[in-house]
Fold this protein.
Amino acid sequence: MEGIIDITIEVLLALIPIVIFFMFFQLRYLKLPSFEVTKILIGMLMTAIGMIIFLYGVYNGLYPIGFKMGEFFGNLEQIWILIPLGFILGFLATFAEPAVRVLSYQIEKSSSGYIRAKLMLYTLSFGVAVFVAVAMAKIVYGIPFLYIIVPGYLLALVLLWLSDKDFIGIAFDAGGVATGPMAVTFLMSMVVGMASGHSGRDAVVDGFGLIAMIALAPIIFVMLLGIYVNYKRR
């Protein structure tokens, strides 16, 4: 149970201010019935317990597994296999990211079903998968990070003018949501492990930059989806 106390403190420090704000507005303005307040507080308690268990499993399970897997694949002779492997793992990690699912659900609810949650979930998962594969190619072939990130953001600026306006805000919010615990712990540790295990690569120089690329992926692919929607409207 090493580290669970620290994780519990972190979760409580994040949730207690939310509870305080809710109780303040409840007493001053909302005046919800007691059964509604009880239901909300029970939901917050379940959220806290779930976050503690989830983060404990991530930090103590996914992180060491990702690093060891990265070291193993980094020592393979057929190093090109990292690229399709990165695509698969990037898709699965994003598909399993709780925050991505919450965002997809909120988008469908706010758009009254116009933008389906499944469509957004698969778009984000595919986009991140592509950029994780690119990150693997960066390690395999020694591509400088600036050669990827600068053209990527230039492309994003161009897409701002072409995409449907409803998708622009979603795209930039999705960029932050995609860089959740699954990406930061499992994918990041795996990439650092690959860079450490692959001869001729530096763990700091070649292993980092993945999170910036994951944050960029939803921005580009969601705005591409917005361009497609614009095309279908016309």
